[in-house]
Amino acid sequence: MVSKRRLSKSDDKENLTEDASKSKKQPLSKKTKKSRVHSEVKENDSVFVELLKTSGIILKTGESQNQLAVDQIVFQKKLFQTLRKHPSYPKIIEEFVSGMESYIEDQDCFRNCLLSCERLQDEEASMGTPFSKSLIKLLLGIDLLQPAIIKTLFEKLPEFLFENKNSDGINMPRLIISQLKWLDKIVDGKDLTTKFMQLISIAPVPLQHDFITSLPEILGDSQHAEVGKELSDLLMANTPLTVPILDVFSSLQLDPKLLSKVRQLVMSKLSAVRLEDLPVIIKFILHTLTATNAVEVISELREQLDLQHCILPSRLQASQSKLKSKGRISSSGNQESGNQDCVLLLFDVIKSAVRYEKTISEAWIKAIENTALGSDHKTLDVAMLLIIYSTNTQTKKNIEKVLRNKVRSGCFQEQLLQSTFYILSSVLKDICPSILLLAQTLLHSLEQSVISFGSLLYKYTFKFFDTYCQQEVVGALVSHICSGNDTEVDTALDVLLELVVLNLSAMRLNAVFVKGILDYLDNLSPQHIRKLFYILSTLAFSKEHAASSHIQDDMHLVIRKQLSSTIFKYKLIGIIGAVTMAGIMVTESGPSSLTQGRTDLNDEQDTQVISLLQLVHSCSEQSPQACALYYDEFANLIQRGKLAPKALEWIGQTVFNSFQDAFVVDFCVVPEGDYPFPVKALYALEEYNSRDGIIINLLPLLFSQDFGKDGGRMTSQESEQKFVSPLCLASCFRLLRLCVEKQHNGNLEEIDGLLDCPIFLTDLEPGERMQSMSVKEHSFMCSLIFLTLNWFREIVNAFCQQTLPEMKGKVLTRLKHIVELQKILEKYLAVTPNYVPPLANFDLETLDITPHTSTAVSAKTRKIGGKKRKADGSKISSPDTLSKEDSSECNPTPLDRSQLEKFTGKEEKMSVSLQNYHAFFRELDIEVFSVLHCGLVTKFILDTEMHTEATEVVQLGPPELLFLLEDLSQKLENMLTPAAARRVPFFKNKGSRNIGFSHLHQKSAQEIAHCIIQLLTPMCNHLENTHNYFQCLAAENHGVVDEPGMKVEEYHIMSSCYQRLLQIFHGLFAWSGFFQLENHNLLYSALEVFASRLKQGEHKHSLEELLSQSFHYLQNFHSSIPSFQCALYLIRLLMVISEKSTAATQKREKIASLAKQFLCRVWPRGEKEKSNICNDHLHSLLCIYLEHTDSVLKAIEEIAGVGVPELINSPKDTSSTFPTLTRNSFVIFFQVMMAELEKTVKGFQAGTAADSQQVHEEKLLHWNMAVRDFSILINLIKVFDSRPVLHVCLKYGRLFVETFLKQCMPLLDFSFRKHREDVLSLLQTFQLDTRLLHHLCGHSKICQDMRLTKHVPLLKKILELLVYRVKAMLTLNNCREAFWLGNLKNRDLQGEEIMSQNSQESTADESEDDTLSQVSKSKEKEDGQDDEVSDGEKEQDSDESDDSD
C-alpha cells in the first residue's frame, strides 16, 4: 500500500511537470494568452476573481497554469486581511466562495485550480519555497475559507468518482484529495472526518484504497480515535479493504482495546487471506503486541498462520502450468516469483519485528517452547527459531536450548525440517551462515539425537541452497573432519557420504575441499579413513569422472606412498584406501571407465583393480599385521557385495591356495622338530581313521615364530618354506569363507571340512606342570590358546547360519570348546603377569596396545584397606571412596568368568577378567546370535560308509549362553548407548573402545536394533527358563545359595545369564532412536514380542496397550530375581518402558513398590564376598524408590525412623525391615535421603498471603514433616560420626537451611498469627537441628579436615541469616520486644564443651541460662512466641562465638 501512495504522488508530479513543459513550449503565445485572460477577467467582475487578482494571483484558462505574482505566504496573508477588513465581512466570504463555485464549473478551470501555480519570472528570485502550491491548497490554508472550500470540494468530488482518467492522464479524485494532505491546520476536523468517511462509503474499491491510505496525511491527531472506530466497523463489513485499513492503523494513535478487537477479528480471518496480503496483516499484528499479551498472541498467530497451505498450492499450480504448456512457462514463472517475493516480504516484516522488539522474539520462543506435542509443530516454528538465531545474538543460547529440548523430545523430526527447507528455502538462504553456525554448535553436543539434527541442517542446506552455500557446507564439514573429535569426524563423514548420494554432480564441484583432507590422515581412525576413501573414490570414479582425474592421481599417489612406508600406521592407511578404492572401481551396480577410447572398458577396469590388489599384497606380505589387515579389509569389501565376479574369482582362488599352503597339512603328517611340548591333534569333531583328513598346523607355526627367532631350532621343513605367521590364520580364513559364500550363494560345502578338523596343539590343561614352566613357556601357552580361540570364533562366524542339524550341532560344540578354553586361559593368565597377547584385530591406529589389567593384588589391597576402616567400629569411609572401590569390585558390566572362579572352592593367587582382553579376540558377527534360537539339536554320528552309527543330542548350555549374551551386551552398549554415556576420557586412546567392533560399525544402529528384536523371542525363552530355574531352586532350598548339595557355580552362571538378558533388554529399549518416527515400527515389533508372551493372538493392539502388557510381562519376573544387580536392571527396564507410556502414574507406583521390595529383601551372599550389594547399585535403586514413591517425606521417615533404629540395636549390624541397610551401606542411605529431602523441599511453593487458609495449613503440614525428617537424619550423626556422614550432613544441611529461609519463612510470616502453636513447634524442632549443625562446625574445626571445614563458612553464614530472618518475622507480627540475644557454648558432637575457650565459658553459661529463663517467662506471657526467639538467639551467638575463635 506504500507503493500505491507513492504512485499517486508521482502521478501528481508528472502531471505538473507535463503542464509546465507544455507552457514552456509556447513562449511566444504568452502575450496573447495574457491579453485574452486579462480581457476575460475584466469581463468577469466577480469578487472571487477581483480579490485573487488584488492578492497576487492571475487566473488563466485552457492549459495554462494560474500565475502567482507574490510569495505564497504573502498571498495568503493579503487575501486573509482583505477578507477580514472588507466592509461586508463576513458576507464577503459567501460571495467569494460562490464566485469560486461558479468559476470551477468549467472543468479546465477547476483542473488549473487543483494544479500548482506558475511563478512569474521576476518573482522567482524571491521565492523561498521551490514548489508552488495549487490555488485550492493556498485557499485551504486560510482559516476563514477552509470549511466552505472543503464543503465545495466534497460536493464536487462525486462527479468524478466513476469517470476514467482525463485525456491528459489526470485522476481527478486523487488530485482533489491530495489538496487536503498535510494542511497546517484543520479548522473543523470532526466535519472533515464525517465527510471523508461518507465519501469512502460511496467510492469504488480502487479509490477506497487510495482514500483510506490518505487518512493519516489528512486528519489531525484528535480525530484518530473516531476514524479508527469507523474503519474498524468498515473492516468488519468489507473484507477487501483489510489491507489498506490495517496499513493505516499502524500510522494512527488508537486505543489498545480497539486494536485488540481488530487484531482478534483479523486473526480469525487469517487462514483465508491471500498470500500477497499477509505482510501487511502480520505487520499490524506484531506492531499491536504488548508485553502482557505477546505470548498469547504469538501462540495464536503460529496456530492460524499456515504457510504450507499458502505457498505449496501456488507452487503446484505453477508446476502444472509448466507441464501443460511450454509456451506459458514465463507466466507461470512470473506467478511463482511473485509468490516468492510475497514470502520474502512477509519474512522481512517478521525479521524486522524480532530484531528490534525483544518482547516479540522472546514471546515467539516461548510460544514454540510451550507447544508440547510434535504433531502441533509447523514449518514456521523451525524457520522462526533459525531466523531469531540469526537476527538476535543475545538469544542464541536460548534458541540452542529450545532446539535441543525439542529434538530430544522428538518434536522436531527430519520430515518437519525437510518441509521447512523445501517451503522456505528462499527465506532461509539469506541466513545460511547462521544455520551453519547452529549446525556446528549442535555437532558439539553429547547427545546423538541432537548431533543427528545438526547433520540434517548441513544436509538440507546443501540440498536446497545455491552453489555458494553448498561450498560453505562442504567447507564446514571438512573443518569438522579435521577437528580431531571422534564424534564430529564420524558425523561429518556420514553427512558427506549422504551428500555424495544426494547430489553427486554438486559434490564433484566441491571435491577439491574434500581432497584436502588427505593432508590430515594422521588424525583419523581406520573407520574414518575407510569412509573418506569411499567418498573420494565415488567422486573420482563415477560415470562422469573426466573432470575428476586429478582426484584419482592424488589418491593413487597417497596410497602408493603409504603402502611403501615401514610404519604400520601409514601402511594401514594405504591398505584401507587401496581396498576401498578397488571396491568402488569394480562396483557391479555402476561400471566405470578408467581410460577413454578403450573398446573393452570392463576388462581394462578389472586389470587395473587386480594390479592394485597385487600391489597391496606385495607391500603387506612382509608384515603379518599388514597382511592380516589386508585380508580383513578385503573380507569386509566382499561382505558388502562390492566386488565384480571376475575379481571375486581371482581373489577366491588366490586366497584358497594361500590358506591351504600356509595353514593346512594332511592328517597323516607328523610334525618334526624339537618342540618343548608334545604335539597332539586335538578338538576333532569326528574320528579321523582315513588318511584323507586335514589338520590346522597351529603349534608348529607359533613355535617357529616365537622360538625360531632365537636361532638354531627351526626344522628343515620350515626352512624350505617361506615364513608364515599364525596371526593371519583367522583373517585369511574369514576372507576364504566369504569368497566361497559369495560364489556359492551361502553354501560352504567346499570348506566344511575346516569345521570339524583338529588342530596341532599340546595338552592345554595346566595341572601340576604349571609351576615348573618358564615365563616364556607360559607366554607361549597363552598365545597358543588365544590363537585357538580366535580360530574357533571365526569357525563359528562362518558356519553359524548353516541349516543342517549336524552343522548346528558342530557349531554348538565349538562354542563349548571356546568356553572351556577361556577357563583354561584364565588360569594361565593368572600366573603370567605383563603378558601381551597376539593381535586379533588389525585396524588399529597403533600396534602398541596392552590389556587393561586389574589384578588381584589391587583387589587384595582394597580388601585390606576395607578391614582397617571397619576396625573403627561405626566409622565408615567416604561415599566417594566407597563408590570407587566397590565399582571396581562390582563392575556395572556384570559377573564375568573371573568372578565365577570365586565359587569353585579353589584358592587363586590372582583373578583375571577376560573382559580386559576383549581387543585380543576376533569379533563375533551379529549373525552368530542366531544360535540363540537353538534348542535341543540331534547330531548324527556316521560310520565309514556314511550310515548312522549313533545319535547325540547337543544343546546350548548355560556357560555357552552366558558367553553369547556377554558378547551381545557389549555390542549393544557400543552401538545403541548414547555417545555421551560412553565418552572416553581425554588422555585415553580415542579408538580403544571401538577395537573389536569394526564389523559391527559397518551396520547402522537401526540394523542392529532390528537384529536384536529378531532375537527377542529366543531371549524371552531363555529368560523364562532362567526364571523357572530360580523358582524351582527357591522352592527346594528356600533361596539359600550355600545350601549343602547345591551347585554354586551353576547358580552364579544362571544368575549372570539372568542379569545379561535384562541388561540387553534395557539397552534395547533405552535406545534414543525409538523416538524417531521412522523407528516407531521397530518399537512396535519389540513390544509385540513381550505382549505375545502373555496373550497369543493376531489381534492388533495400540502402542499404549502393548506398553502396558510388556510392563506387566516383565514385572512378573520380580519374584525370581537372584541378585541385587539383576533387580536394578529389571527396575531400569520397567522405567524405560513406562517412560514411553502416556499413562505413567500407575506404573510409577508399581516401580516404587518393586524398588521397596528389593530394598527389603535379603540378598544371597557368596563365599568370601565382602558385600552382596555394590554401593553404586544401592545408591541407584534407593534414588529410584524415593523418586517414584507417592510421599518422599513418609518414605524417608520410615527408613530413618524404623530401619536405622533397628540397625543400631541389631547385633548383626543389619536392619530387619530393610536388610540392605547395614553399617557399611548406611552412608549410602544417609546421602540419598538427605539429597532427596533437600530436593523435595526445594519443590515446595513459598506461598502468598492471598492463598486460602486450607492451602496454608497444607503447606505448614508439609514443612512440619520435612523438618521432622531433617531432625531425625541430623541427629543420626551422634551415632554415625564417620567423615562421609559428616560431609553429607554439612553439605545438605546448609542447602536445607537455605531452602527453609527462601520457601518456608515467607509462609511463617503470614501463618504465625493463625497457627501460632504449629509455627512455634516447627521452629523449636528446627532450633535443635541448627544447634547441632553449629556443634558440627566446631567439630570440623577441631578435626582440621579440609573436606569438612570448607563447608563451615557458608553454613555459618546461612545460620546467621536465619537469625535475622526470624527477627524480621517477629517484627512483622508485632512481637519485636520478644527478641533478644544470648551466647551459645561451643560443643562437639557428643555435647562436650570445646575447652579452647575457657575464658568465655562462664559468661556463656550464665548468658544461656538467662536466655532460657527469659524465654520461659516470655512463653507464658506471649503464648510461646519467645521459644522461637531462643532459636534465633542461640544460632546468632553460636556464630559470634565461633567467629571469635
* Structural class by sheet pairing and helices: mainly alpha
Task: Assign a percent range to the helix content.
Answer: 55-70%
| DSSP E strands, number | 9
Low-confidence stretches: 1-43, 123-127, 316-329, 588-601, 710-721, 854-909, 940-946, 980-991, 1397-1445
Enumerate how many helices there are, as a single number: 62
Euclidean distance between termini CA atoms: 80 Å
Round the Cα radius of gyration to an integer and report it: 46 Å
Q: Secondary structure elements and their pairing?
A:
Blueprint: H1 2-25, H2 30-43, H3 47-55, E1 57-58, E2 67-68, H4 72-85, H5 91-103, H6 107-114, E3 118-119, H7 135-140, H8 146-156, H9 172-178, H10 189-202, H11 205-218, H12 224-237, H13 242-249, H14 256-268, H15 278-287, H16 294-304, H17 307-324, H18 329-356, H19 358-370, H20 379-391, H21 396-408, H22 414-423, H23 425-428, H24 432-443, H25 448-464, H26 467-481, H27 486-502, H28 504-509, H29 511-515, H30 526-540, H31 549-563, H32 568-585, H33 601-620, H34 624-639, H35 645-663, E4 664-666, E5 680-682, E6 694-696, H36 698-706, H37 716-720, H38 729-743, H39 753-756, E7 759-761, H40 775-799, H41 805-830, H42 856-870, H43 879-889, H44 897-900, E8 936-942, E9 948-955, H45 958-976, H46 1005-1014, H47 1016-1037, H48 1048-1069, H49 1080-1094, H50 1103-1115, H51 1124-1139, H52 1145-1159, H53 1175-1188, H54 1192-1209, H55 1226-1242, H56 1253-1275, H57 1283-1311, H58 1316-1343, H59 1346-1349, H60 1352-1372, H61 1401-1422, H62 1425-1443
Parallel strand pairs: 2-3
Antiparallel strand pairs: 1-2, 4-6, 5-7, 8-9
Helix pairs in contact: 3-4, 3-5, 8-10, 9-11, 11-13, 15-18, 16-19, 17-18, 18-19, 19-20, 20-21, 20-22, 22-25, 24-25, 24-26, 25-26, 25-27, 26-27, 27-30, 30-31, 30-32, 31-32, 32-33, 32-34, 34-38, 35-38, 36-40, 38-40, 40-41, 45-48, 46-49, 47-48, 48-51, 49-50, 50-51, 51-52, 51-53, 52-53, 53-55, 54-55, ...
